[in-house]
Amino acid sequence: MQSKVGSFAIKDIVFMDMESSVFHLIEEFSSLHFSALPVLDRSGRCFGIVSPADVFDFISSGGDVNAVKAWEICSHTMIYVHPDITITQACEVMRDNGIHHLIVGDAEKPIGIISTMDIIQKVREEGMAAVTSTHKNTAEGQNT
């Protein structure tokens, strides 16, 4: 797929302060319906990323959702990508790194976030033919 991730990445990013409680994360996920929230450190740089699965894992461990902070449960595996990479390239990055979210931009100035579901929805919009022809062209280019 030749669409650039910057063209459909979610631009209205909601950031969480690293000192936010897990309960605050629960409130945000419930009201926003996002699949990940970047966690910022005291200087405003991305510290990590937290997903509902991280919150679920924490709840299942029996921890106190009011006492534990976002920085304690967030993942520190954040991959930043340039807004001009294609859907196919984004899929490769996600697959190769075992992640489900990419931050579009960089730690200093993230401009968006993209998830596996965002990609799936975009592929559905553009149609399966585009995916098939892109994959075929990529495979042919590797054989030359």
Keywords:
144 residues; alpha/beta; CBS-domain; three-stranded mixed beta sheet; 6 helices; 6 strands
Explain how this protein is built:
- The protein has 144 residues and is of the alpha/beta class.
- It has one domain: CBS-domain (Roll).
- The chain is 42% helix and 17% strand.
- It has helices at residues 22-32, 52-60, 70-73, 87-97, 116-126, 128-142, and strands at residues 16-17, 37-40, 46-50, 80-81, 101-105, 110-115.
- The strands form 2 sheets. It has a 3-stranded mixed beta sheet. A 3-stranded mixed beta sheet has the order 4-5-6.
- A hairpin with a 4-residue loop joins strand 5 (101-105) and strand 6 (110-115).
- The mean pLDDT is 86.
Summarize the topology:
Blueprint: E1 16-17, H1 22-32, E2 37-40, E3 46-50, H2 52-60, H3 70-73, E4 80-81, H4 87-97, E5 101-105, E6 110-115, H5 116-126, H6 128-142
Parallel strand pairs: 1-2, 4-5
Antiparallel strand pairs: 2-3, 5-6
